[in-house]
Structure formats: structure tokens, C-alpha cells
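Do me a favour: review this protein, sequence plus C-alpha cells, and tell me how the chain folds. Record follows.
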Amino acid sequence: MQIAGILLVFAMLAFYPPATGRMILIPLGGDPAEALSFAVGGGASLVGRGPFAGSVVVDGHRGDFVNTLYRHHILMLAAPAAGCGATA
């Protein structure tokens, strides 16, 4: 049981979005364009499509738009360099 807890913590840390850098935005039941609009309105720039349907990769400061994304049910994850999808 403890090993499972430790693995869960490491998985959460691996996908926790950075304070500054690339992040994957995944709209949970919403419009992908809306997710991008909120992020760009907060100062982020579009990097490209994300690896999941409707997701996008942006580059910016998490604190500038995290509250808006949270209120609109948009999941934000770290975007590792490998597997981020095609560039726009």
C-alpha cells in the first residue's frame, strides 16, 4: 500500500504544471477554443496541438491563468518535450 502511495506521488509530481513553461490544456467537457482563449488572454502563447483530442500546448506563466482555467473545468498538465504533438 505504501509503495502505491509513493508511486502516486511521483506520478502527480511528473504531471504537475510548471510555474513557467509549456503546459497541456485539456478541456473537460468544454470547447477547446475556449481553453486556448483563456490561456492566451492570460498571456500564454500557443505552441501547438496536444496529444489528446481537443487539447492544446501553451507556453506561459501558470499563475496568470490557472484560476480561470480551473473555474471553466480545464485540466492543466506539464508538457514534456517528447509527445507534445505537432506545432501550430
User: Anything to note?
Assistant: The mean pLDDT is 81. DSSP finds three helices and four strands in the chain.
